[in-house]
Amino acid sequence: MTENRIVDLPEVALAYRESGPPDGPALVLLHALGERATDWDVVLPALAPGHRVYALDLRGHGDSGRTARYGLEEMRDDVLAFLDALGLARVDLLGHSMGGVVGYLVAQARPERIGRLVLEDIPAPHPRPAGAVPDAPDEPVHFDWAVVKAVKAQVDTPDPAWLAGMAGITARTLVVAGGSASHVPQERLAELARLIPDCRMVTIEAGHLVHSARPAEFVAAVAPFLSV
Questions:
Q1: CA-to-CA distance for 78 and 83, rounded, in angstroms?
Q2: Are the CB atoms for 205 and 179 separated by under 8 Å?
Q3: Residue 77 CB contacts under 8 Å (≥ 6 apart), including other chains
Q4: Residue 39 Cα to chain centre, angstroms
Q5: Where exactly are the structural domains of the chain?
Q6: What class does CATH assign to 3-227?
Q7: Which of 13, 48, 163, 226 could anchor a disulfide with 125, C-beta 3.0 to 4.6 Å?
């Protein structure tokens, strides 16, 4: 059974969905920009049935609080505060796109807190040409549009410390690449996988939305990794 919960953190209230056996090892799921915890529902039943799963709505998304400040470091700190609030000393962590960036920032800041790390088709921390921020849609969306501008600016011009910090990640890591149909440069993902000490990469030709476009193949790659 999945339960919807909210935890009050120092800077923001975070909504999350909790499921799985209460005594299972903890697995935290972090969604992409503009998504929410329910984005994982397509793979959740098969992904980690032996885990206690915590799928978060990151700040500014879904049912979590809106704030005056948005940024990837703030989201990193929210995740660490979430772990502290729930008494989760050590977890496995899976992040897609923006959520994967938040995931490796957590693993860099507190390596002892992360056992296994899965990074699904994430933007590698290299500068890229800054494109125009799209206009807010006319229809309501389930996230604060201000997040888009803030996160895009950081992904376009990442802190050099993020790349340097890859060598300090101690978690066993799996990089899931989306292949030639993804807009994420795949050679950058391969480089990232080489920089993380205990890391391997698997490519699933699905484009950027790997777990939703090819859920069975995604689970076949990720579930065994999380169960070892």
A1: 9
A2: yes
A3: 11
A4: 12
A5: 3-227
A6: alpha beta
A7: 163
117: phi then psi, degrees, rounded to nearest 5? -130, 125
Model pTM score: 0.97
How many whole angstroms separate alpha carbon 2 and alpha carbon 17? 6
Q: Which two structure tokens, joined as six digits, stand for 27?
A: 């697995």
Q: Could you list the pLDDT tens digit for every one of the 228 residues in the chain?
A: 889 999 999 999 999 999 999 999 999 999 999 999 999 999 998 887 889 999 999 999 999 999 999 999 999 999 999 999 999 999 999 999 999 999 999 999 999 999 999 999 999 999 988 777 778 888 889 999 999 999 999 999 999 999 999 999 999 999 999 999 999 999 999 999 999 999 999 999 999 999 999 999 999 999 999 997
Q: Which two tokens stand for residue 8?
A: 């009050």
